Automatic annotation (TrEMBL):
It is an enzyme of class 3 (hydrolase). InterPro entries: DEAD-box_helicase_OB_fold (IPR011709), DEAD/DEAH_box_helicase_dom (IPR011545), DHX15_DEXHc (IPR044756), DNA/RNA_helicase_DEAH_CS (IPR002464), HA2_WH (IPR048333), Helicase-assoc_dom (IPR007502), Helicase_ATP-bd (IPR014001), Helicase_C-like (IPR001650). It is found in: Nucleus. Its EC number is 3.6.4.13. Belongs to the DEAD box helicase family. DEAH subfamily. DDX15/PRP43 sub-subfamily. Gene3D superfamilies: 1.20.120.1080, P-loop containing nucleotide triphosphate hydrolases. The gene is prp43. Residues 29-38 have a biased composition (Polar residues). It catalyses: ATP + H2O = ADP + phosphate + H(+). This is RNA helicase. Residues 1-12 have a biased composition (Basic and acidic residues).
Length: 735
DNA sequence: GAGCACTGC
């Protein structure tokens, strides 16, 4: 036996593997990529899995364990365990594709774990997920399957919650969390195997991790990498990962019949309503899922369908129909209603429910009992325009992959039907294959900062699976340079290093780090947390006026940022009860979330030695200090009132914008800083506060260089005056 | 006088 093997055995923290270790017949040594690894055979691992004792903790397996084990061995993926192990032993990287129901997310990590068990020392196996709930629920399931305590041998790690410990060998985590870890440990040295699950979703974090994995793979021949994805673009993953071998496992779903329209639909909303009612009248039992694009559209459709369905029921033309909306900003108790039982059949026809949902039902939420899917072929998608530096949401046609995913939702419990409200020709010729990965649709300033912290110096030649547009990269580098997070050579500055440790956009991070200079880091910390969560204001359709009136009592004349702070302080002094929030039209959920973010940021501040300071509330500069701190991070998001006195013009880009109607400023100040640029029916700036122009030239002289304003005479001359005034007062103060 | 698809640190 090789010395390496002996070493790993004597270091092993799992001394219970005698039956694996001693049964030398079951084991063989395999050499690949210059590294010696011990290969377990299916017979050996199945023996270990069959007990009587759990090899991971030496406790006898429970009866429940064996019941689950039988089910696991029925999963499609189990048939290919042998094949998987062979590939795993012989290769450093494998691409694994398995459709819904194949069991890949729960089983593959266990296959790895049983295989690694003989030589696991202190290393771990990580399996990433794009969503927190998935990481949590899969970890729970796998802990049950392995008959261990969650947080023990099997755990999970997501933002705000680390449920793992010193004994954890398998850790499910969000992709963002692993990326954070990589920022402080560039080779991810604590892991012996990293599994990137749901890679086809192409989240920003997964894309960066994939590029990182390629680099780490070369530096760490001992690291195993498994990329798991849905089938469609397996070739692309293989090619990207040095022609890694592919293992494909069939899913376990029921067939779904696809129907197209003969002619293009002029009005997809109207067509969707008609289709739902037609299914309800003509088709056999089974619930319906309809995909629409947003809250307003969904609520509207729900009302119309409920009205029509009532008529049909009264006429005796159809059975009862319950209609449920489903979208992300719907309160959780209302989201849960989709799981209510389907209404009883009546003489006139089967009882059904119909769920009208955004894309949330495409991946994040699974509803059992869906037999019919209505797919109009649209969704709201984020797009980024680097020219004007604006991210916006646009209703766009979905991709073929997305259409396939939607259809699949009809076949989870029995054969189903999917009604596509577009022609087959349109599906073939007009839909793109895959939704563009997030990296091509986002502002990358956060990502660029992360990459720098990850030790990637040459961002342009980093091996992206899909390289972002050069202009997007330029914008990000330029923004980080103005924020002084990167120097003129593009290297991380001490400020940039600090900023990268905060889970925040760079402008928020810089504002927070600089806030002690303005004697208000306590307040800016609260403000940053409030700006990092969904809106804390609730404005129900039924009580808009009242909600607006109550909001007014918190309003600060100098701007929405200060209003947010006022609300937060009132919330804290009311002891944050949900009744108080309800009565003041505030979202308790958002405020709790802001509190969590605040705590996390505060820990980061302590770690980065950013002091917590407050200006006494009585001080006349209390609010001024906060507004000045705001400018130190948001000087690139400033607008000046335009000549007509109604609109605003953004600095440098010269975009005509309006104050968002939610803005609470009592007067329209000459200069404002804004948190967000929203492009909807027209261009709005949202969450706006008044600032003094002399702060701009004082706090961001590089950005407010007069030579950069030649295309806007009005702004240039205004700035010129301020520079002159500043010079004069400097002279004056010298006397 | 308008709106927040969905995630994540």
């Amino acid at each position: 036996m090789e010395p390496a093997l002996k070493k790993s055995r004597s270091d092993s923290k799992n001394p219970y593997l005698s039956h694996l270790e001693d049964g030398s017949d079951d084991l063989e040594s395999v050499s690949s990529n210059g590294l010696t690894r011990r290969a377990t055979t299916v017979e050996a691992v199945e023996k270990a899995e069959s007990g009587p004792n759990n090899p991971f903790n030496n406790i006898p397996f429970s009866d429940k364990y064996f019941a689950i084990l039988d089910g696991r061995r029925q999963l499609p993926v189990h048939q290919q365990r042998d094949e998987f192990l062979k590939l795993y032993h012989e290769n450093q990287i494998i691409v694994f594709v398995g459709e819904t129901g194949s069991g890949k997310t729960t089983q593959i990590p266990q296959f790895v774990l049983y295989d690694e068990l003989p030589h696991l020392t202190n290393s771990q196996v990580a399996c990433t997920q794009p969503r927190r709930v998935a990481a949590m629920s899969v970890a729970k399931r796998v802990a049950d399957e392995m008959d261990v305590k969650l947080g023990g041998e099997v755990g999970y790690n997501i933002r705000f919650e680390d449920c793992s410990g010193p004994n954890t060998m398998l850790k499910y985590m969000t992709d963002g969390m692993l990326l954070r870890e990589a920022m402080n440990d560039h080779t991810l040295s604590r892991y012996s195997c990293i599994i990137l699950d749901e890679a086809h979703e192409r989240t920003l974090a997964t894309d960066i991790l994939m590029g990182l994995m390629k680099r780490i793979a070369q530096r760490r021949p001992d690291l195993k990498i498994i990329v798991m994805s849905a089938t469609l673009d397996a070739r692309k993953f293989q090619k990207y990962f040095f022609e890694a071998p592919l293992l494909a496992v069939p899913g376990r779903t029921f067939p779904v019949e696809i129907y197209y329209t003969q002619d293009p639909e002029r009005d997809y909303l109207e067509a969707a309503l008609r289709t739902v009612l037609q299914i309800h009248v003509e088709e056999g039992p089974g619930d319906i899922l309809v995909f629409l694009t947003g809250e307003e559209e969904i609520e509207d459709a729900c009302r119309k369908i409920a009205l029509e369905a009532d008529d049909l029921l009264r006429e005796g033309a159809a059975g009862p129909l319950n209609v449920y909306p489903l979208y992300g900003s719907l309160p959780p108790n209302l989201q849960q209603r989709i799981f209510e039982p389907t209404p009883e059949d009546s003489k006139s026809g089967p009882g059904r429910k119909v769920v009208i949902s955004t894309n949330i039902a495409e991946t994040s939420l699974t509803i059992d009992g869906i037999v019919y899917v209505v797919d109009p072929g649209f969704s709201k998608q984020k797009i980024y325009n680097p020219r004007i530096r604006v991210e916006s949401l646009l209703v766009s046609p979905i991709s073929k992959a997305s259409a396939q995913q939607r259809a699949g939702r009809a076949g989870r419990t029995r054969p189903g039907k999917c009604f596509r409200l577009y022609t087959e020709d349109a599906f073939r010729k007009e839909l793109i294959e895959q939704t563009y990965p997030e990296i091509l649709r986002s502002n990358l300033s956060s990502t660029v900062l992360e990459l720098k912290k990850l030790g990637i110096d040459d961002l342009v030649h980093f091996d992206y699976m899909d390289p972002p547009a050069p202009e997007t990269m330029m914008r990000a580098l330029e923004e980080l340079n103005y924020l002084a997070c990167l120097d003129d050579e593009g290297s991380l500055t001490p400020l940039g290093r600090k900023a990268s440790d905060f889970p925040l956009d760079p402008n928020l991070a810089v504002m927070l780090i600089k806030s002690p200079e303005f004697y208000c880091s306590n307040e800016v910390l609260s403000l940053t947390a409030l700006l990092s969560v969904p809106s804390i204001f609730v404005r129900p359709n039924s009580a808009r006026k009242l909600a607006d009136e109550i909001r007014q009592q918190f309003e600060h004349p100098d701007g929405d940022h200060l209003t947010l702070l006022n609300v937060y302080h009132a919330y804290k002094s009311s002891e944050g009860t949900s009744d108080w929030c309800w009565n003041h039209f505030l979202s308790h959920r958002a405020l709790i979330s802001a509190d969590n973010v605040r705590k996390q940021l505060r820990r980061t501040m302590e770690r980065q030695q950013v002091d917590l300071i407050s200006t006494p509330f009585e001080d006349k500069n209390y609010y001024v200090n906060i507004r000045r701190a705001l400018v130190s991070g948001f000087f690139m998001q400033v607008a000046k009132k335009s000549a007509n006195g109604k609109n605003y013009v953004t600095m440098k880009d010269n975009q005509m914008v309006s104050l968002h109607p939610s803005c609470g400023l009592s007067v329209t100040p000459e200069w404002v800083v804004y948190n967000e640029f929203v492009l909807t029916t027209k261009s709005f700036i949202r969450t706006v506060s008044s600032v003094r122009p002399e702060w701009l030239v004082e706090l961001a002289p590089n950005y407010y260089d007069l030579d950069d304003f030649d295309n806007n005479k009005e702004v240039k001359s205004a700035l010129q005056k301020i520079y002159q005034m500043a010079a004069r007062s400097k002279k004056g103060s010298r006397k």
